[in-house]
Specification:
The structure is a homodimer. Chain A is α/β, with parallel strands linked by helices. Chain A has helices spanning 11-21, 33-37, 55-62, 74-86, 105-111, 125-134, 165-173, 215-218, 234-243, 261-272, 316-334, 345-349, 354-364, and strands at residues 3-7, 25-30, 45-49, 67-70, 90-93, 114-116, 138-150, 176-180, 183-187, 194-198, 202-208, 223-230, 252-254, 257-259, 281-293, 296-307, 341-343, 369-374. The mean pLDDT of chain A is 96.
Chain lengths: 375, 375
């Protein structure tokens, strides 16, 4: 039983707090009373209203705890992480901040802090899996296909998400960085569509997005890609919007007012893409790691298909992201993972036994990776 | 040789002025010097800069002429037409104003004016053709399929036009009014897509738009439709934009600024849909009039396929619209059509010989309708 502070009581933050509270003493902080209210009636969880953009507030909140879970929005994630490390507290972060976390390596070392970043499902579990195999075989290629989608497919978009449209659009704009033939290359997003069949939902369409993040720099593997999946047809419309200028970040004048088209687009899509509180959705992920293992050419495949949990009302997005992070929390608390410094999840995977423990932890919660090995 | 004033020196106005100047004394007026400049070097045409939103300017311009051709933008067309009728001048109008022209019937009668409105290609020639057959047979159905498109098909829109995107979007929003089983019904625009093959350009996609205008009220025919044609795929994107709210005329707040999504959309598409000055485009139209003629069930079909004229630099849009109007001008000047009052083009068609003369006039200019009759 440890004292843990969860920063951020959004959908994933709440799911993690409830999970950790089964065993630990958990405090959750958020500026939104709305978010905190949803944790009422969970007697094991202490809620604290706090403005987490202020370093002093964070440091006051966490001063007595053993570990911090960072689930604030991405734009404030780096500063929050820095504030936690300054206090010498171990941290597991799923804020997915855009800055380079490795810049905090020096600080984390000085403070003796174990800081795991990007520790969700993707990025997150893909990194752990690749880190695991990379330590014991000569990996030649890594592929990660991932998507979070509603079961209900409403045209024209066939898409809904529990987060802001602007974050999704960002993925559709930002060029994808891949490794091909040992070179980092850059390809426009939404390109190279391919159809893939899944037993649970039929055919999905995968396409290029920029998702490799730390793997681009920590791994020395000839070929690495990550692709996002949507229902077929979705990206045609997104390409149209992009080609039509609707994703443009340059201000244009419209009837005398300066406006960025992307801001209007995001505003319009807030309603259209809003995932209902209890709307069934799923997470699908397929990871393939191929290479030479003990003289044999092998491919390891990990398949995840996880659904919204009707009983708890917890979305699959929150389950798969949140339990990846809480499984890493256990590793840190138990001393199974103890590298001081900033750790992207592939570092955890490289430690013998860690992947297995994370998978077992998640399996207990119904998040199940099916593993197959082929020659 | 008559004195004619053409109001508006846009693309169609200029084409009509040049056509009429072969035989008549033509004055063209416009507020845009840019537009008027393009008529320099045509010694038979007098150009006059004038603000045509002012009635006094119009009436001064036209006081000595025999006939006026109205080619101002639609939003000012009704007032211009009224000003011309007040002066007792005959008029052929292709401004396609949204108001109900028949409200000027009383004024036109008082002033003894022959006023032909909506006299382009569509509306225009379709009405003339239907009026013609309706006078001599029992018409059971009327179909008009029409499109103006660039030869060059660039994704995602595969569309360009010499007029403002907002006018096109209007067609995609406004519900289509049709006659089915003698009832006027209303159907959303962009619906009931059908593929049609054309020898010159392959497959096009026709869909519902509101184009019957006066025919809804002047004709007593059980079934009447008009459909617009685009390259296949175009309307899927347009439906997506409509469903996504991008055509909405309701203001929304975007980063503190109130804005109508349609205004931003139209602004973005101005560049994307801009037809280049010398960019080859075509007009395609297929009209079918079916019914009982002399005891037989027959269908008359009119096929038009007209191209941009490289030699003169006159677009097909201007040729087909403009020469429809100038062929009606000849009928009025020659006394072939002399009904005092407001005449939609179907009234002209009903007068024996008029359709034939209009077709012959246009044929001389290379705008050729292929006519077939089937049992």
């Amino acid at each position: 039983m440890a004292k843990i502070v969860v920063l951020g009581a959004g959908m994933v933050g709440r799911a993690m707090a409830m999970d950790l509270a089964h065993k630990h003493q958990v405090t959750v902080a958020d500026i939104s009373e709305e978010n905190l209210k949803r944790l009422l009636g969970k007697p094991d969880i202490i809620t604290r209203k706090a403005d987490l953009s202020k370093k002093a507030n964070i440091q006051e909140l966490i001063k007595d705890c053993e570990l911090v879970v960072n689930a604030v929005p991405g734009f404030m994630g780096y500063k929050t992480t820095e504030a936690v490390i300054e206090m010498g507290k171990n941290i597991v972060d799923i804020s997915f901040f855009p800055e380079n976390g490795l810049e905090l390596e020096q600080l984390a070392k000085e403070k003796g802090v174990i800081a795991v970043i990007d520790c969700g499902v993707a990025p997150g579990m893909g990194n752990v899996i690749l880190g695991h195999h990379n330590a014991v075989m000569e990996v030649e290629s890594y592929e990660c296909y991932v998507g979070g989608l509603p079961f209900c497919r409403t045209l024209p978009f066939q898409y809904k998400a529990p987060f802001s449209p602007i974050d999704v659009i960002e993925e559709y704009i930002r060029p994808a960085r891949y490794v091909r033939n040992k070179q980092i290359i850059t390809i426009p997003a939404l390109t190279e569509p391919e159809l893939m069949d899944f037993a649970e939902v039929g055919t999905l369409q995968a396409f290029n997005t920029d998702g490799l993040r730390s793997l681009l720099f920590t791994m020395d593997i000839p070929d690495m890609i990550e692709k996002t999946m949507r229902y077929p047809g979705h990206i045609d419309y997104m390409k149209m919007l992009r080609a039509g200028g609707f994703f443009s970040e340059e201000e244009i004048e419209v009837k005398g007012k300066l406006i960025k088209p992307i801001d209007l687009t995001a505003q319009l899509l807030i309603d259209k893409w809003k995932l209902g509180e209890t709307e069934p959705e799923f997470t699908v992920m397929r990871i393939k790691v191929c290479g030479m293992e003990q003289g044999e050419k092998v491919c390891w495949q990990y398949d995840l298909f996880d659904r919204y949990d009707k009983v708890t009302g917890i979305s699959s997005m929150a389950r798969t992201t949140g339990y990846s992070a809480t499984s890493a929390v256990e590793l840190v608390l138990n001393g199974d993972y103890n590298r001081v410094g900033i750790s992207p999840p592939e570092f955890i995977g490289a430690v013998p036994g860690c992947l297995e423990k994370m998978l077992a932890y998640q399996k207990e919660r119904g998040v199940i990776y099916h593993i197959s090995r082929s020659l």
